[in-house]
Design goal:
The chain is an alpha/beta fold and 421 residues long. Helices cover 41% and strands 13% of the residues. The strands form 2 sheets. The protein has a 7-stranded mixed beta sheet with strand order 1-7-6-5-4-2-3, with helices on both faces. The structure holds pyridoxal-5'-phosphate. Pyridoxal-5'-phosphate binds at residues 83-85, 109, 111-112, 152, 156, 181, 183-184, 202, 204-205, 214, 216, 361.
Length: 421
């Protein structure tokens, strides 16, 4: 079956609810769960019986969300977390230890950047960063035996598009775990099918869409019986769990080595709200991805000189060929405007009537933010350059409003700012 938006629309609306009994997902807020007898308690703790143990390591509402997102990503299992950063820190702490090295490819969300460069670094995990085109560096680090590669499906806010398939192939040759942050492109890109091992989302963004629930989720492939990279010597510390738990081992590795000890768990109310968003994800992604292309085109034609729009759908964009080849369904809700100076960017933002000024993306509403003075205010010039952040850069996340109305809003604000500065 062709896995287009219609396919996912059917899948998501049918699997979020239930056909018998309550149609909406049920919320189980209990922190603790009674066991049938002592033997069952022993089996639950051993992972031999699949029943709720204690809400820090999972609850039935989270389990429903996990099974739906896992199907959506073509995964074997998933773990819902307290936030997107919760998912990323769960995966990194479950697999990395002092002395290991992680390679980060492309631009990164601010929190992921500081997690790697400050927090993980403080615990002795080394890192290196490179651009999506820097294949030589990628190969050299992979050859040297690094432990994990991190990458975003679309650079935020650089909008650089990595060749996920090629990088995943390289990670498979050198038996190195690849985690892809797919927050910007749920349903548009399926990293596990392209060869990645782990996909993470901030479900706060597109998956929910309504900005009513902070959440994250990590989705895993099955552990293979033969030629499994986890059985490489460099992952020796997880071999015991992997051998015992077989194909589903990614889940107990993350639960026992991160969730149990650090508690970045999702809560039932949040997971319920996230599922309400998930039911309409395919409709929203289709609409928003059509709108982004339309808004970018109108802005490219009509913006005054001094304000430039950037989006991979435009033939002027450096990743336009990659967009046409590997991002056929779109590359998510973001586009950027470069106003040249911060002063002009502020003036444009303050004149907007439709877009909301906030540090979020993937919302049902159109959002805009000046990058250098907010998310990147703590970062030095080099870091900003690496992440594609210039002084006049505004990040826009397109919402469900009428695309012509959105474009009109940015055009009137740009005209105003150009006249003033
Ligand atoms: C927002 C975001 C995160 C972090 O998610 P939270 O839910 O805010 O913790 C991670 N990655 C990307 C690409 C994001 O946009």
């Amino acid at each position: 079956m062709k896995k287009d938006f219609n396919y996912y629309n059917t899948l998501l609306v049918q699997s979020v609810g239930s056909k018998v009994g309550p149609i909406a997902p049920t919320i189980t807020p209990s922190a603790a769960f009674g066991y049938e007898d002592a033997q069952q308690a022993e089996a639950i703790f051993a992972g031999e019986v699949n029943a709720p143990l204690y809400a820090r390591v999972g609850n039935p509402t989270n389990a429903k969300l996990e099974s739906v997102v896992s199907q959506m990503e073509g995964g074997f299992g998933a773990i819902a977390t307290s936030s997107g950063m919760g998912a990323i820190s769960m995966v990194t702490t479950a697999f990395l230890k002092a002395g290991d090295e992680v390679l980060c490819i492309g631009g990164f969300f601010g929190g992921t950047y500081t997690l790697i460069t400050e927090t993980m670094k403080r615990f002795g995990v080394n890192n290196s960063f490179c651009g999506v085109d820097d294949i030589e560096h990628i190969e050299e680090r992979l050859k040297s035996g690094i432990k994990m590669v991190l990458m975003e499906s679309v650079g935020n806010p650089s909008l650089r598009l990595p060749d996920i398939k090629m990088i995943a192939d390289m990670c498979n040759v050198y038996e190195t775990l690849l985690m892809v942050d797919n927050t910007a492109t749920p349903l548009l890109i399926r990293p596990l099918e392209l060869g990645a091992d782990i996909v993470v989302h901030s479900s706060t963004k597109n998956i929910s869409g309504h900005s009513a629930a902070l959440g994250g989720i990590a989705v895993f492939r099955a552990v293979k019986e033969n030629s499994e990279k986890l059985f490489n010597e460099k992952y020796a510390e997880v071999h015991k769990i992997a051998k015992k738990m077989g194909s589903k081992a990614f889940i107990p590795i993350c639960k026992k080595r991160a969730i149990r000890d650090m508690g970045m768990t999702a809560n039932a109310f949040g997971s319920f709200l996230t599922m309400l968003g998930l039911e309409t994800l395919s409709l929203r992604m289709e609409r928003i991805n059509n709108s982004v292309v339309r808004v970018a085109k109108i802005l490219e034609e009509k913006l005054p000189e001094g304000v430039n729009v950037n989006h991979p759908s435009l033939s002027s964009n450096q990743d336009h060929q990659m967009y046409r080849r590997a991002f056929k369904q779109g590359c998510g809700p973001l586009l950027t405007l470069d106003c040249g100076t911060a002063q002009r960017a502020f003036s444009l933002l303050n004149r907007l009537q439709v877009a909301i000024l906030t540090a979020n993306i993937g919302d049902n509403r159109t959002l805009a933010l000046h990058m250098r003075s907010t998310i990147y205010s703590d970062f030095d010039e080099d870091t900003c350059r690496f992440n594609g952040v210039t002084d006049g850069l505004i990040r826009v996340s397109i919402g469900l409003e009428d695309p012509d109305t959105i474009a009109e809003d940015f055009l009137q604000a740009a005209d105003h700012s150009i006249k003033r500065y």
